[in-house]
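ok trying again, last paste got cut off:
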Amino acid sequence: MSAPHKITPSNPRVASLLSDVTKGNIKIPVFQREYVWHDDQIMSLLDSIYRGYPVGSLLLWSTKERLKHERNVGGFVLPETPEDFPVQYVLDGQQRLTTLYGVFNSGDPTDDPELSKRFSVVFVPDKGEFVHSSVADPATSINLRNILDTTKLLPELPRFTIPQQTEIATLTERFKDYEFPVVTIKDRSNQEVCRVFQRINSSGTTLSTLELLAAWTWSEQFDLRTEIQSLLDRLADKNYGTLDEAEVMRCLTAVVNDDIDSDALVDIRPELLVEGMSKLKQAMFAAIDFLDKEIRIKNAVFVPFPIMLVPLVRFFASNLKPDVHQRKGMRRWFWHCAFTQRYKAGTNRLVVDDLEKMKELATGKPVFDSLAATVDHTIFLKTWRINSTMAKAAICLLAQLDPKSFLTGTPIDLSDTLSAYNARQFHHIYPKGYLGSKGIPFHEANVIANICMLTSADNNSISDADPAAYFAVIPDAIRSDVMGRALVPSEDQTGSRVYSDFVKSRASALATMAENLIANG
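nice, full thing came through this time. structure:
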């Protein structure tokens, strides 16, 4: 009984393999890298075949699936194949195949003359070695492009001595008879081919779903890779440059397929991907605008979980103009995800669940109206690390209160503070140096509940001062306001409270604020 999904090993001779390339039966798809081999790698491959050494295998995909853009091998113009005629696409081994084809066809018309010159390699029979034609004596060497074609080889032989002719004959037989290991996969689904493609790493570069999709969807008007890169560049202009290709692909998958597994995109009709890319651009910038205006996030690094962007994008793909109720629902969802650490375990199922809810919210259903949570104040007693999910959530929380700097009452410029990792505008309310002088270790001093936002100038002025001393400098007219905006409880606004009591009290205030945000948006 034959296997339903065939993987066929074979060992065609080099001449047969190159003949299939010439006929257009083997093609290199656009998702493959450009030719990157150095000259010493070219010579090494030829010498290995000459000596009968193994050189690795080719992995081919035999399919009637027509990729919309195929790159000719090494710049050499190859024939088109008839419709519905199976074509074998190179998934792995294109550098080796391109080298062999280029060397044995270096005199043919080409779109890449410079590369063709590199493929002009000769064999020196007296030395049994391969060198570039530019450094060889043409009288004592023979170009490899002439050895596999008898009509080209025979006129060359008379100029060589008998021993040299014998060496050339050996060379010719070794290349003609060399069996090149080939593994061909066929009758596989697009997703299976995609997964095989992703796992190939013989060249040291993992190949991506995006590259395969780009080949399937390419047209003169649309190149998915260019579209994604253009979007990433525009995101960088909005301080969302930390988002990478994989995260954008998840957003595209959510828009097109209500999922986050981008492998599934290979089964989507190309025209739907093109349409989805158009929706993605609008939805992505609408989601970023929402995070900016509603949550005060000015930089992607402060989104507690980067994947939180995916459900938001899914909402805006369905509804670019949310009403007041829908905006409130998204705010409540954001705070609930942030403070319950909903995505901490990396469970994709929860993200997919939220995609469905966002679709419902986009139609007006009150899917987040019942969200509520008891926030454990001890989460704010965790170590302050500006890149931790809980620290980011706390920063977003404090931004809601339009914070002002302690000493001067100057409004904190969130565009500055939250546009990058500006550590100088985050301050330990009870300074680390002061606490260290009291015998309180760094790990106890450096907790989220001990952090507030200050201007750099006030941060420098306060330095490691006793909180009771610098709190007293705050003008009476602004003390209650600036402290309240930092969620410093009224009983703690003298700075004289024991640190352990202060930090617990402020952690409780932060937790209460978090619960209010979840409940009320």
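cool. The two ends are 61 Å apart (CA to CA). Confidence is low (pLDDT under 50) at residues 201-207.
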